[in-house]
Design brief:
Two copies of one chain form a homodimer. Chain A is an alpha/beta fold. Chain A is about 40% helix and about 15% strand. Chains A, B: In the C-terminal section; belongs to the class-I pyridoxal-phosphate-dependent aminotransferase family.
């Protein structure tokens, strides 16, 4: 017999009747598997003596258990725990709380995190970091594509687990897309599909960085890349970014004087400043990469969104000895609620990265990836990008005009060649967090901007995401911003 | 002027005409951004002298570039690189290869990997590790749900980036589902949605394990968990698993004598052996966890698939001081081509894990998660599980009968209480890799089995995944297996 005297704890001061306490605790023991189906409970007389209770109380508890189907009365043998237990109901614990109300009792790792981004006040209007307009995303076409895949006979034969490198049809479609848009001439072995640009960055960095390695990033730099490198144990050296992009002379100087393991670069519409690397610096950088066999992560998150000027092809499309790991994403075309990114690299790098990805994530959603392949093949993505580029170009220009009209002395900026945000510098006498708090009171949510200067020189600037706001919203947002600035 | 003499390299022995070589190299320089739109090319006479060519050759090259719209003849000024460059075309490199044909030239990390799994011979029939039947997956319902979400007015307002913890509606729906199926009484702060059980395992382990920490796993153990812990730098101690699950006496002994940081356990249908932890050992384990404040990852990947016996609720549903991090998945209900998993833990653990997940993956697919929430709410998942359980139960029994009938002396096994695989031990005189090679010749793909003994005692066994095979397929598979064994 189980040690029922220890297991069943009666609290006579409780407002719950004793027989219900007993019944509840038996249910817990059965649910926990301590009392198994087919087991006989002690006779009511025995248990009553053991617990120092009146026998009637125990009988009432057993009646309750029987009524709930937990136990069955077997003639001449006693009360048996039912073979077919009733549906499982959540239990409460002695402390009246749930299983995860406390703990854990062991220490937990702390990943690096960002400072607080913005006020929590709920707002109708938001200035974001540079997101697309989800209203434009071709999600109807995506749902149709999924449907048509599911209805193909025997689709399940090829559509269960995909390889860690991603859906093969998508990888093949990527070749044409990358050649047409970026002049990138590769094979499918050079493509890995990931859950988004961030996973591509993390995986690539994990393949390159060993704890204590020196790496170079821009100052300022994309904050989630910074955090990932820090988490991987990199020693980060920050090289200034000016209007022509990262200072390549300083990069060269550093490569000459110390062992630099990696460079992270955003060559088009740098995050956060939106500048694009000049052709001269691009040439210089390719020379440095080849000479020093420097590992490079080129994050080209916004390449597909270009307006006034035709984009220069990425570093990845030039002659770099296979040293540039190229990172991009379809997430912004898919309206953010579906996240797919990619990594382009030498075959050996892709193969070894797949081994790491398998441990973190096995592989992607084969159905979602297959649907994207279909949308690349039938031209949906190209059509979407054309439409979005036209609209975002107009919105960029309108945002620029509105900012000049309403905040002529309060902010300064340069219109970016592409992307989804304007890098807005506030005049010295205006403190961005103060402006943001005032804006929040007026119903406009905007950033405090701390994270744009994550561990780099503080600046009084923020990204003004214009792409997600239609003309009417842009007018309202800039008017509210002007009001916040001037109040 | 650019150093054209250096930049343009003419190979007179090439089969390509010299003027085409020059044109092609100019296109490369323009694509690379070294020559920018609006720039004037050198006069044909100047370039001819510089390159030591006949002037007519240069003129032919410029004509070609003009025909392709790369340059424009400006009267009295010369050849200007076009402002509107023609569509970008992929370029080839001097070596005739593509940008990623070689390299990288820097060292790359090696993640731990499995030994080769099976023969590469293409086969019509496959014995898998224990996958569901994708033909049953409610993907039509899923596509319908996606469609209805997309058609809701203003869905984009709440459906862009989700939080790193996962879609809030899904987290709320999970509470009811976990309570109904597992008796787990928690709050939404205790739930994190991930990209699958593997990501949950990796993240949880990364929060607990520091390089060199001693952890306990079963022997044998689920191979991808093993690899993940190894990759994170754990020192792995293997404790035997017998027919009652992991040897808890040895676990206790180890906890008493050295600092054990973590235990990884699969309490239902252990992978690979399919045994379920006995009630006594479960009780013992809970005692050890509370006493030693031991961190536990409970991987309950197959809980939803139970046949002959009602499942005992997981460790997570008992009183464990918040020390059991509970991992599960919907991937098997969704037919593998959509991968969603979850982690249940104390709020503090979830919050800190979200910070790490953000660096690796920002967050999940909000649309896919929202659709799953809808399928939990409208009962699709419950209906699917009922239907699948009935069918898999029949298939388990049929597989068992067939194996006994056709391979009475060659294999031994115990039918598992649930899950999707039978753990098949081959008689000593039969070497599994030999059998697998023979089977491959007969058109049946099956594992070599090496990975089931990844760094643990070798055994001549494999998982026989029965759930994905219908009755006809089961008969064929067992007949082929018998033929392979006896040939």
């Amino acid at each position: 017999m189980l040690p029922y005297k220890t297991l069943l704890r009666i609290d006579k001061s409780s407002r719950q009747a004793v027989y219900l306490q007993i019944a509840g605790q038996f249910i817990g023991l059965i649910q926990d598997g301590l009392i198994q189906p087919g087991t006989y409970l002690p006779g009511s007389r025995v248990l009553a003596e053991l617990l120092d209770l009146h026998r009637k109380t125990v009988i009432a508890a057993y009646d309750e258990l029987q009524a709930q189907d937990w136990i069955t009365a077997i003639p001449r043998k006693g009360m048996m725990v039912s073979e077919n237990l009733p549906e499982i109901k959540p239990r409460s614990y002695n402390n009246g709380l749930h299983a995860y109300a406390e703990g854990p009792q062991f220490p937990i790792y702390e990943a690096p995190t960002l400072p607080v981004l913005r006020s929590n006040q709920p707002s109708k209007l938001v200035i974001n970091d540079g997101f697309p307009d989800a209203r434009l995303a071709p999600l109807d076409e995506w749902a149709r594509e999924c449907r048509s895949i599911i209805q193909r006979p025997a689709y399940h034969k090829y559509l269960a687990f995909g390889p860690a490198e991603g859906n093969m049809r998508l990888r093949k479609e990527m070749l044409k897309y990358l050649a047409d848009t970026r002049g990138l001439n590769i094979r499918e072995e050079n493509v890995m599909i990931t859950r988004g640009a961030q996973m591509s960055i993390y995986l690539a960095a994990a393949m390159i960085i060993q704890k204590g390695d020196h790496i170079i990033v821009g100052s300022p730099n994309y904050f989630y890349a910074d955090l990932a490198f820090e988490q991987l144990g990199a020693h980060i050296i920050r090289v200034p970014v000016d209007e022509d992009g990262i200072d390549t002379d300083m990069v060269e100087q550093l490569c000459r004087t110390k062992k630099i393991k990696m460079l992270y670069i955003i060559s088009h519409h740098h995050h956060p400043t939106t500048v694009t690397l000049s052709a001269e610096r691009r040439m210089k950088l390719l020379e440095i990469i080849r000479k020093h066999k420097l590992a490079v992560i080129e994050d080209d998150y916004d390449f597909d969104f270009h307006y006034s000027a035709a984009p220069i092809v990425p570093l990845a499309s030039a002659d770099h000895g296979g040293n540039v790991i190229y990172v991009g994403s379809f997430t912004k075309s898919l309206g953010l609620s579906l996240r797919i990114g990619f990594m382009i690299a030498p075959e050996k790098f892709i193969r070894k990265t797949a081994a790491l990805r398998r441990l973190m994530d096995l592989g992607g959603d084969n159905l979602v990836e297959e649907a994207l392949a279909g949308m690349l093949e039938n031209g949906t993505i190209t059509r979407h990008l054309k439409k979005a580029n036209k609209l975002y170009w107009e919105r960029r220009d309108l945002a620029g005009e509105l900012l000049i009209r309403h905040l002529p002395d309060e902010v300064s900026f340069r219109l970016p060649q592409g992307g989804m945000a304007i890098w807005l510098q506030f005049a010295k006498h205006l403190k961005l967090p103060v402006v943001a708090d005032k804006a929040a009171e007026l119903g406009l949510s905007m950033t405090y901007g701390y994270h744009y200067a994550y561990k780099s020189k503080p600046h009084n600037g923020m990204r003004f995401g214009f792409a997600s706001l239609n003309n009417r919203e842009l007018v309202s947002v800039v008017q509210l911003l002007a009001k916040a600035v001037k109040s």
